[in-house]
UniProtKB/TrEMBL annotation:
Keywords, in A-Z order: DNA recombination
UniProt-recorded Gene Ontology molecular function terms: DNA binding
GO biological process, one term: DNA integration
Superkingdom: Bacteria
Entry annotated with the keyword Transport: no
Protein name: Tyrosine-type recombinase/integrase
InterPro entries in the cross-refs: DNA_brk_join_enz (IPR011010), Integrase-like_cat_sf (IPR013762), Integrase_catalytic (IPR002104)
Annotated ranges, domain Tyr recombinase: 1-96
Amino acid sequence: MESLKGPYLFDSQRSEQVTTRAVQHVVGKYARRLHMPNLSCHALRHTCLHNLVKAGVPLPTIAEIAGHLKADGTPNIDMTLRYIKPGEEEKANAMELISWD
């Protein structure tokens, strides 16, 4: 397996890192090819953070991964909560946990 040229997850042939805009371009290209107009880097970010919650990762850890930090460097949980709202199916499943049969 080839190692990375630098400290970045995505490196490029021309430089040490791939730019944010380049990643957005690639995701947009595949979104068009797959006819998925809602697919974007931002949607993938929401999905990643949401999946971390579902996996049981503590909110302060998720906030740090997301870069949601207050001016004093502590995790900004309120910002993170905006990203991880449960879907309708998850709310229904939660209610099933306490349903009385």
